[in-house]
Amino acid sequence: MQGGDGLRPACRVLASPRYLAAFQPKQVPHFFTDILVIGSGLAGLRAALGVDQKLSVLVVTKDELHSSNSDRAQGGVAAVLGADDCFEDHVADTLIAGGTLCAPEVVRYVVQEAPRRVIELIEWGAKFDQNGSRLALTREGGHRRNRIVHAHGDATGREIVRALTQRVFQAATYVPMHHGFMDLAAIMDWYSRYVLAWRVSNTLETRFCLDALDEALERHGTPEIFNTDQGSQFTSEAFTGRLEAAGIAISMDGRKRALDNVFVERLWRSVKYEDIYLKDYATADELIEGLGHYFTFYDHERVHQALDYRTPWEVYSEGLAA
Ligand SMILES: Cc1cc2nc3c(=O)[nH]c(=O)nc-3n(C[C@H](O)[C@H](O)[C@H](O)COP(=O)(O)OP(=O)(O)OC[C@H]3O[C@@H](n4cnc5c(N)ncnc54)[C@H](O)[C@@H]3O)c2cc1C
Fold first, then answer.
1. Which domains are seen in the chain, by residue range?
2. 73 Cβ closer than 6 Å to some ligand 1 atom
3. Centre of ligand 1 from the C-alpha of residue 117, in Å
4. What is the CA radius of gyration of the chain?
5. What's the CA gap between 85 and 178, in Å, rounded?
6. Over the stretch 136-165, which tens digit does the pLDDT of each residue have?
7. Which of 26-35, 117-126, 208-217, 273-282 has the lowest mean pLDDT?
8. Does any ligand 1 atom lie closer than 6 A to the CB of residue 86?
9. Considering 12, 222, 224, 264, which has the largest number of Cβ atoms within 10 A of its Cβ?
10. Angle, CA 141 vertex, CA 140 and CA 145 arms, to 5°
11. If DSSP codes are grouped into helix, strand and coil, which group holds residue 101?
């Protein structure tokens, strides 16, 4: 049997899909990514950081970035780190406490991984409580040894989420090289997408971001508002102090403001897919020269659909003339 529009009933369903929440796909922003991670708890953030740097990753989360069980986790992380402790004891304590709920092979795997993962978290910037120069290990629940690592007393989850979130933001700006990585900072005019200044560095220090900021302010003047992501360079006192001294209001991305950073993220995607991945730069000098050509092309030749098929420079210079 056919409907009045000539389509079979099954085809009609496909032609007008129904969604749980009312929305028009054509009217919501579209994001393209190689890997989609859902959830910004520790599992999601760690998964995002584990993805090959050559692939793009998008972390989608519900509500606020920090709204997760991970952020609320209090007591700490159990790991064999004390001189008087051993894997066998940790496994035994866990099996006694967990009883039949435990899969012994999983317990063994998790217990053996734990010290490595705690060290990884420290290397990634998590600051756990210390007794002098050693980790302050405490004893809790069914553990018979001191093996709980914690942060700020009982805000362990918050500290780990903070460190991993910051690392995820930083990873967005990594440039994969033949050997290792460089970090890229770019200052962009929001209205026109014009790249005002950029710098690369092989350290995670703030200096190269300050250099880019100085060049942007010197060559293009002082904006009213400056937006940054939550990478540690941009939240550092040196960076925010420089903006405040110039009388510039700071708008940080983060809670409830996921879309704010979308233009910069599109820039990262363009520069990576249209230049860096294709060229596979071997040295810093090659990278700097190549990016110089790319950003000139991006600002002066590459038209943007969202700018009515004009270049960033055309739109930016119009604003200057006005
Ligand atoms: C009060 C408290 C104390 C705890 N203390 C400890 C402790 O001391 N030690 C310990 O090891 N563990 C502790 N835990 C357990 C630990 O927090 C969790 O096991 C761990 O954080 C789980 O991490 P996760 O990333 O899998 O999940 P979560 O941290 O819950 O993250 C899930 C993510 O998915 C997102 N999400 C959910 N639904 C959707 C959706 N439909 N669309 C998009 N995103 C979605 C959420 O917003 C969130 O970002 C505690 C938990 C709580 C609540």
1. 10-60 (no CATH), 75-154 (no CATH), 173-321 (3.30.420.10)
2. yes
3. 17
4. 25
5. 42
6. 999 999 999 999 999 999 999 999 999 998
7. 26-35
8. no
9. 264
10. 50
11. helix
